[in-house]
Prior knowledge:
Blueprint: E1 5-11, H1 18-29, E2 38-45, H2 51-58, E3 65-70, H3 75-89, E4 93-97, H4 108-113, E5 120-125, H5 132-149, E6 160-164, H6 165-174, H7 183-193, E7 201-203, H8 217-246
Helix pairs in contact: 3-6, 5-8, 6-8, 7-8
Amino acid sequence: MSLELVVVIPAYNEEECIQQVVAHWINGISTFVSPDKFKLLIINDGSKDRTGAILDEISGIYPNLIAKHQLNGGHGNAVVNGYRMAVEMNPTYVFQTDSDDQFDVKDFGNFWEKRNQSEFILGYRKVRHDDPFRLVITRILKFSLLFIYGTYIDDANIPFRLFKTSFLKKLLHALPARTPFAPNIFLAVLAKKSGQNLFNIPVIHRERETGEVSIRHFKLLKVCWQSFKELLAFRVHLNSLVKEITQGK
C-alpha cells in the first residue's frame, strides 16, 4: 500500500521525552492521515543516552514507527539522511519536525489543509521560547538571507515544514555535496527562489522541559559563521540551481 506521508524526526539524547514525542505525533497525525498511510521515521543521531534503546523497545508497540540509528553527524546530517530515506519510501509528502517536544502536532493540520496549494510549506515560531542569545542569532540570519539572496524568510531554519516528495527530490539534488551545517536554510531559500508560496504559517513553540541544548553559545557563534560562509559560497550557484528546479514543472 502506498504511503501518503513520512514524518522525519532527528533525535539526539532525548531519553526523557522520546516515547512521549512518538506517541504525541503518531496519535496526532492519525487524526489527519489514515494510520496505514503514514510512517514516523526517527533518525537517532548517535545518542549517548537511552534514546536509541527506547526507540527499539517501543517499535513493537507502534507499527507506524521506523527507528534508524547512525553515528553522530550533527542535526543537519541527520535531517538530510532522514529526508533521503523518506524519499526512498516514496510517500506523496514528507514532513519534518524535531524530537524535543517543543512543537504541537495540532499545527500540522494547517499545513495539511494547504498541501495542494504549494510544494513546500513552512512554519514560523511567532513566539519563540529560546534563550536571548539564540533569538539574536535568528534575527541576524533573517537579515543575512536578505543581504545575500535578496529574499526574506521569517524562520528559515524552523523544523516544521511540509514537502511534496517530488519537489523534495529536486531540492536534495541541489544541495552542496558536503552537507551544510543547516541544510534546512538552503532548502527554504531554494523553495522561495523557485516561486513556492511558503505561507509562513505561525506555529506553537513551547519551552523545552527535558534534555538540554546541544550547541552552547561559543560553538553556536562558530557554526553561525560557518553557515554564513556556506551561504555566501552557495550564492554563486543559486540561479542555475533554481532554474534546474523549476524546469519540468
